[in-house]
Design brief:
It is a single chain. With 136 residues, the protein is of the alpha+beta class. It contains three helices and eight strands. Strands 2-3-4-1-5-8-7-6 form an eight-stranded mixed sheet. Strand 2 and strand 3 form a beta hairpin. It is globular.
């Protein structure tokens, strides 16, 4: 059911500092400008790699869901893994039919397409994001 790996989400206390690490330590030259999604309480940018992306996410506001993650992991760390699916509504129905806990109704994510999250307890401790494949 899942398609290609789209990105790995990494929560960080500072996008600018994390982007600098990817530039200086790893030689990455293609990093997007930070954007904001106030409805989800995050700032984000993408580290573009030849075969995937790393999404850097930073808390935006005092009610950001990333704050709790960073309290447990003050220097940051892997937050989620995102896979593409053809139809987010079908994926949500299928996940629920299989007994998975879907954490949200489909909403628009950083790529401009609908997303849902699957609770880590259903995936060996990993938060899974399912993202409808962008229709370029």
């Amino acid at each position: 059911m899942i398609g290609p790996l789209n990105h790995v989400g990494v929560a960080v206390p500072s996008i600018e500092e994390a982007a600098q690490t990817y530039r200086e330590l790893y030689g990455v030259t293609d990093i997007t400008e930070p954007g904001e999604m106030p409805s989800q309480g995050v700032r984000f940018c993408f580290v573009n790699l030849p075969n995937s992306q790393i999404e850097l996410i930073e808390p935006l506001g005092d009610d950001s869901p990333i704050l709790n993650f960073l309290k447990k992991n003050p220097k940051g760390g892997q937050h989620h893994v995102c896979f593409e699916v053809e139809d987010i509504h079908e994926a949500k129905r299928e996940m629920e039919a299989k007994g998975a806990t879907v954490l949200n109704e489909p909403r628009i994510g950083a790529h401009g397409t609908p997303i849902i999250f699957i609770h880590p307890k259903n995936s060996n401790g990993v938060l899974i994001e399912l993202m409808e494949t962008p229709k370029h």
